[in-house]
Write a structure and sequence with these properties.
The chain is of the alpha/beta class and 319 residues long. The protein contains 14 helices and twelve strands. Helix content is 38%, strand content 18%. The radius of gyration is 18 Å and the shape is globular. It starts with 11 loop residues before the first strand and ends with a helix. Bound molecules: beta-D-ribofuranose (BDR) and calcium ion (CA).
């Protein structure tokens, strides 16, 4: 979007699709509090947590950000073909670290997340930027219902996959892609303007060490404290399973890139396909790094990022 001195800033319309748990919550904070971004809707999908938990978590975050004007829509409760298997062992039973937050009793907007996305794509045709932070079930349903959706989207930033093919759900698959691989297949074939920010980017550029977390929390606002405290269960998972030096923030760095593409310092256009059947490699997004398939690229893949730029956006958001 062009910003011209003397003219009012035109805010960019974002629609966010999320399985709201602890890192999604931080990504929502970054978007909801950014002056250049107009979050026109939030769709919820089952993934990290069952659908109802995701709805309540997103409504809680919007309220904490004083953004109850942003509609939150419930979407798909199960993947297209496989049973739902959540990430509650990663983010807590409530998805928000099980720290006792009041995560019930709020009411989502009327209507379904898929309809809300399609409506927003008409209202903001050619300008809408879709950011997905969870499994792609709602997006697959949307393009199945209306194959012209890609024509109306400016871009689709997907937190998902791994460009180095080191997985966090099985040896080669990232969680969001693994939960609903058939939805990934639909999305990859739909002609959408896809931009992937994978878990490799999070693991490399978005790990918050205990010192980073303390510095963030010391900002002292309720939002800053929430952003750190809800990572309690995730921190244990990162220490024991993914062996990181702190907790990582995949959805927040994807959101930071969506808002400011300069967060990416390298990217490649690649042909991507997903494995849907193999129990060993389910959810692996195979990126044709050496051009074996001869197929034209169907996605831009971020391969390196600017950690400091991401950190600045995160810290600015929680003040
Ligand atoms: C992704 O999976 C979830 O656990 C996170 O919210 C993020 O969207 C990282 O692989
Ligand atoms: Ca997520």
């Amino acid at each position: 979007m062009i910003h011209t001195v003397g003219w009012p800033t035109v805010r960019r319309p974002f629609f966010i699709d999320t399985d709201t748990a602890s890192d999604d919550a931080v990504a929502l904070v970054i978007a909801l509090r950014h002056p250049d971004i107009d979050v026109v809707g939030i769709g919820i999908v089952a993934g990290n947590v069952p659908l109802d938990h995701g709805v309540q978590n997103a409504l809680y975050v919007a309220e904490l950000c004083d953004r109850t004007d942003v509609p939150v829509f419930a979407g798909e409760a199960t993947p297209l073909r496989v049973p739902l298997e959540t990430g509650q062992y990663v983010h807590g039973q409530d998805g928000m670290g099980d720290i006792g937050l009041p995560l019930s009793g709020r009411t989502p907007a009327d209507g379904h997340a898929v309809d809300a996305l399609l409506d927003a794509s008409h209202r903001h045709a050619g300008e809408l930027e879709l950011v997905t932070l969870g499994p792609l079930t709602n997006i697959a349903r949307a393009v199945e219902r209306d194959p012209t959706l890609p024509d109306r989207l400016e871009r689709v930033v997907v937190m998902g996959a791994v460009a180095d093919h080191i997985g966090n759900q099985n040896p080669v698959a990232e969680f969001n892609m693994w939960v609903d691989p058939h939805a990934v297949d639909v999305v990859l074939r739909a002609g959408l303007p896809l931009e992937f920010v994978g878990w490799d980017i999070s693991r490399t550029y978005a790990v918050m060490t205990p010192d980073d977390a303390a510095e963030l929390r010391a900002i002292g606002t309720p939002i800053a404290e929430m952003c750190v405290d809800i990572q309690r269960v995730l921190s244990e998972f990162c220490a024991t399973q993914t062996k990181l030096a702190g907790f990582d923030l995949p959805d927040p760095i994807a959101m930071a890139y969506a808002i400011d593409p300069a967060v990416a310092t390298a990217s490649r256009r690649l042909h991507c396909e997903v494995e849907t059947e193999s129990p060993l490699t389910r959810g692996m997004v195979v990126m044709d790094l050496l051009g074996f398939t001869g197929h034209a690229p169907n996605a831009l893949v971020v391969t390196a990022a600017d950690r400091d730029r991401f950190r600045s956006m995160l810290f600015a958001a929680v003040h």
